Structures are given as structure tokens and as C-alpha cells.
């Protein structure tokens, strides 16, 4: 059985006192001879919404911009995304998706209507970034597109025609319209979300009403792809956080018609939406409080999966965590509707913990999309005109990308909880391992303790040990972050804290660190 933070033995709960924790070693056994499920690379997916400066001023600067660009896409952003190995990108929202009418974003740019972005600050949406610009970006970077259709304020016909426009190679009205707009061959669009947050900004629906709508949309969304494996993968709009009733209703009513169901869960440092907490002005107690909040993901994934198991024991339906990440107060002086926040070492730790949780549930979690890719919420990249900063979260995604598409290997971990008095107890160490297609074994580790290093004694079963190589991401403060003036303040370094003796590997994890080793 693959390990999870939650599956740590109940006995460890007793160890949640400072004295005992300090005295309890962290011991890990990696079973290289017991391969688990494949870790879907789409767990490392991203999300880009027409919100704030994610698309405009972020990914897209326009062909006439003084900012160096390729056909309107910022060169620096493109370069950073290439290095990140982004597998999947969700677009155009979010809440924006249920207000978006795709025909506004095709054809000559100067003829596209300028509209009011009602969800995000009422700013002008000039529709210069539309279907072609999104799908071309994905194609250029080798990213799988994940398109969210408008259920809240759109029509079935609109959604049906959009799919035809994007994916049909026939001589048909929509395919011909695409050709007239300069794109002969269809794009490959496998992943399709049928609406977003139908319980909220996507239409304030009941689960029953949404399930009926899902049936209608699903009926008319046709498969045009030549290869069966490219057929549309239909993601039903799922629950927020602990709304298990939503998942229960959807699985019961339309579990047979969907390929996936989504889950949204954000980490709010204070636990309060009104005053979420600063992205950079916080101390160690807030750091632990945030980790405690984020670790709720384990319970959400476990319990939604258990409901899915009831209706889908063969695990055909994937759980798609297509919005997650930390949501703090915006940076001072920025438009509150733009959701622009800095990104610190805390966020890097939190990202690694969540990626580990998704990997532990690789049998059910097939996709996750952190919100959002550029300049919004827990972003990979922050931009200021031509300048681009790679955030600590970017570095974690890049370091852990070795797990993408690899086979999960069980890790039995015995680690004490930190003494911090939080609602959800925080394990000192989190770990995840995999073997890639070239046979390389990777082990990623997180030391959640903000102040103390921790030694991990690791035994590897079923594979010979040699001196590992690796990298570490750490900082001297929980709120350390990268700025346009100091873009590499928090960045990965070579790791020399692992030593092998016989079949035992000793790993000295610095305080508040993420380490990835190749064994
Ligand atoms: O990511 C920001 C917003 O959060 C999305 O638009 C919405 O789906 C969610 O509530």
C-alpha cells in the first residue's frame, strides 16, 4: 500500500509533544521492488484564467509590445515554462469560463469585441487572447490543453460548436470557420471541463440541477478525434473542499457518463476569507498554521475518493484537483480583483506537501492544476514588463517534475509530528518516491520544521544503493522570497547531505527544505 501522511500509524499521534518528537528518529523504507500506480504527469498541471495579469501582461504581451515576444507571447515567460515541463494547462477559467463566449475570441483581433470582465475587477477584456492563441501556445510548448466550457451563462449549442471548431477535421461549418481563421488542421483537445464551480460563480446550481445539465452538455459534445485515446475526456464540475454531498450526488447521478470529476480546495493561511493573511509578512506560527490548513487536502482527497470508490470501484473516473494552492491577501497597492500575491518559501513547502499527497493517491488523482500559472495566486512566475521572476513554487514544481509519469514506489515513513499546536498535526517529514522510464529512482523529501534540521534513515529494498545526487530548496526564513531585484534569493542548490553506508542512506534535511534525490 502506498504511504500517505494520513496513513502514518495512529501510534504517532502520541508523539506530538516536543520532548518525544525530538527524541524520535525519522525512518523511511523505500520498496523499489513493489511498484505502485503510475503518477499521472498531469498532477503537475497549471491553470491560466483571464484574471488580473495572468494572460495579459503575463503570458501574452501582444505582437507590437516592446517586451521581447514570439507572436505575442512573452519570450521570458515561454523560456521559463519550457524549463518547467508543464504537462497540462487549464483555460479560460475559473469563474471567467462561465462568462466566456468563445466566438468573441476568434478572427481578426481588431474585429474582436472588447468586453467587461465582470468577475475580475470589471476591466476591459479585448479578447486578443482567444482559442487560437491558447491552443497555439499549448502546441508550441508541448502542453495538453484543458478547456473549460461555459455552462453557467452559455448554451449547449455554443459548447458543442466550440468542440467542433477546435477538434473536427470534417467539412463542417465550425471546422470551416476555423480554416477561414487560418488554422487548417484541428488541434488535439482531450481534456474538457463541463463548467466551473457550478455551485458558485458557475451558476449557483444545486448538485441535482448541475447533474442534469451535465447530461445535456455531455450528449452534444461529440468526439471528432481520429484516435480513441484522444476522445474528449469529460470532467464534471465537482465539489469545493469538504462538500462530500456534491460528490455523492454527482457520482450517483452521472458517475457513468463522466471521465473525471473536479475538486477545488484553496489554502487560506488564517482560515478566514476576509483577512487571509499576508504573502510575505508572517512568522513561524503563521507558517505552521498554513501547513496545517493545507494538509486538509489529504482528508479531502481520501474522503472524495472513498465516495467515488462506492460508485466506481474500478477507479475509471479520475479525481481532478483542478484548482488548488495558497490564497493570501493581495500585495499592497495592487488591484484587489487581480489576486496578485508574492510567493515565499512557505509556499514551496506547501506545494511539495500537496504534490506528495496527490502522488500518494495516484490510483485516483489523475490531474491537478495549481492556481495560477503567472501573476495570480500561487504563481510559478511573477512578471514586471520584460522581467520575470521564478518563484519558490516554480522551483518545487521543476525539482519534483522527475516524478511526472513515473511509477510510484511505496515509502513507509515513521516520523514524529511537530510540536506546533495546530488543528491538523504536521508530520516532520513527508516523502514520495518513483521510478522513471529510464529506471532511475527519485526520492523527494520535505522537512516541515522551520527551525531544525532532521536526519532521515532510509533503507532501500529491491535496489542497490549508490551515492545519490540531488538538489535542495531552502531559505533562512519562512517568508523568504524572490523579487525582481533578487530573483534567485530562493533557488535550488546542489545537495550534499546524503551519505551511504551499506544499504543504509542517511539524509540530513536542512530546516524548512525540499530535497529531491536520484538514488
Ligand atoms: O482561481 C481564482 C478563482 O477561484 C477561480 O476563478 C474560481 O474558479 C475559484 O473560485
Molecular structure report:
The protein has 519 residues and is α/β, with parallel strands linked by helices. The protein has two domains: 20-35 and 409-518, Sandwich (Immunoglobulin-like), CATH 2.60.40; 41-404, Alpha-Beta Barrel (TIM Barrel). Helices cover 24% and strands 24% of the residues. It has an eight-stranded parallel barrel with strand order 2-5-8-9-10-11-12-13, surrounded by six helices. It is globular, with a radius of gyration of 23 Å. The two termini are 21 Å apart. The model is unreliable at 1-21 (pLDDT under 50). The structure holds alpha-L-arabinofuranose (AHR). Alpha-L-arabinofuranose (AHR) is lined by residues 49, 93-95, 196-197, 323, 371-372, 377.
Jot down its keywords:
25 strands; eight-stranded parallel beta barrel; TIM Barrel; 519 residues; alpha/beta; Immunoglobulin-like; six-stranded antiparallel beta sheet; binds alpha-L-arabinofuranose; single chain
Amino acid at each position: 500500500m502506498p504511504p500517505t501522511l494520513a496513513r502514518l500509524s495512529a501510534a504517532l499521534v502520541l508523539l506530538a509533544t516536543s520532548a518525544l518528537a525530538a527524541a524520535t528518529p525519522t525512518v523511511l523504507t523505500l520498496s523499489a521492488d513493489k511498484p505502485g500506480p503510475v503518477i499521472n504527469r498531469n498532477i503537475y498541471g497549471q491553470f491560466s484564467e483571464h484574471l488580473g495579469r495572468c494572460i495579459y501582461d503575463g503570458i501574452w504581451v501582444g505582437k507590437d509590445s516592446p517586451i521581447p515576444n514570439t507572436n505575442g507571447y512573452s519570450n521570458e515567460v515561454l523560456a521559463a515554462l519550457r524549463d518547467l515541463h508543464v504537462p497540462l494547462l487549464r483555460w479560460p477559467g475559473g469563474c471567467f469560463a462561465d462568462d466566456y463566449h468563445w466566438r468573441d475570441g476568434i478572427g481578426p483581433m481588431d474585429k474582436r469585441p472588447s468586453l467587461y470582465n465582470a468577475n475580475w475587477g470589471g476591466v476591459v477584456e479585448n479578447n486578443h487572447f482567444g482559442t487560437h492563441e491558447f491552443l497555439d501556445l499549448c502546441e508550441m510548448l508541448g502542453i495538453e490543453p484543458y478547456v473549460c466550457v461555459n455552462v453557467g451563462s452559455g448554451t449547449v449549442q455554443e459548447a458543442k460548436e466550440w468542440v467542433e471548431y477546435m477538434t473536427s477535421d470534417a467539412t463542417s461549418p465550425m471546422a470551416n470557420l476555423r480554416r477561414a481563421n487560418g488554422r487548417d488542421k484541428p488541434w488535439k483537445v482531450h481534456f474538457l471541463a463541463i463548467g466551473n464551480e457550478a455551485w458558485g460563480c458557475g451558476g449557483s446550481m444545486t448538485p441535482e440541477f448541475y447533474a442534469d445539465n451535465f447530461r445535456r452538455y455531455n450528449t452534444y459534445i461529440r468526439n471528432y478525434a481520429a484516435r480513441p485515446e484522444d476522445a474528449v475526456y469529460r470532467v464534471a464540475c465537482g465539489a469545493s473542499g469538504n462538500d462530500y454531498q456534491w460528490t455523492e450526488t454527482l457520482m450517483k447521478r452521472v458517475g457513468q457518463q463522466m471521465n473525471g470529476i473536479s475538486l477545488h480546495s484553496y489554502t487560506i493561511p488564517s482560515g478566514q476569507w476576509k483577512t487571509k493573511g499576508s504573502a510575505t509578512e508572517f512568522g513561524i506560527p503563521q507558517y505552521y498554521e498554513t501547513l496545517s490548513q493545507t494538509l486538509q487536502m489529504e482528508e479531502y482527497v481520501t474522503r472524495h475518493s472513498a465516495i467515488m470508490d462506492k460508485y466506481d470501484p474500478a477507479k475509471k473516473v479520475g479525481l481532478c484537483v483542478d484548482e488548488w494552492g495558497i490564497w493570501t491577501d493581495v500585495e499592497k497597492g495592487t488591484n484587489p480583483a487581480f489576486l496578485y500575491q508574492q510567493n515565499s518559501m512557505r509556499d514551496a513547502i506547501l506545494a511539495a506537501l500537496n504534490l506528495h499527497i496527490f502522488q500518494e493517491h495516484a490510483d485516483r488523482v489523475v490531474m491537478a492544476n495549481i492556481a495560477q500559472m503567472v501573476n495570480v495566486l500561487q504563481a510559478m512566475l511573477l512578471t514586471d514588463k520584460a522581467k520575470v521572476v521564478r518563484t519558490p513554487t516554480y522551483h518545487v514544481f521543476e525539482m519534483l517534475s522527475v516524478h511526472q509519469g513515473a511509477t510510484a514506489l511505496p515509502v513507509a515513513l515513521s516520523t514524529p509530528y511537530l510540536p506546533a499546536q495546530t488543528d491538523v498535526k504536521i508530520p516532520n517529514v513527508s516523502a514520495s518516491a518513483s521510478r522513471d522510464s529510464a529506471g532511475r529512482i527519485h526520492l523527494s523529501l520535505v522537512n516541515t520544521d522551520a527551525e531544525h534540521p532532521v536526519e532521515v534513515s532510509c533503507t532501500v529494498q529491491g535496489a542497490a544503493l549508490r551515492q545519490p545526487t540531488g538538489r535542495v530548496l531552502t531559505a533562512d526564513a519562512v517568508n523568504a522570497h524572490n523579487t525582481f531585484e533578487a530573483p534567485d534569493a530562493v533557488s535550488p542548490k546542489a545537495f550534499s547531505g546524503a551519505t551511504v553506508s551499506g544499504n543504509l542512506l542517511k539524509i540530513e534535511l536542512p530546516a524548512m527544505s525540499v530535497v529531491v534525490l536520484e538514488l
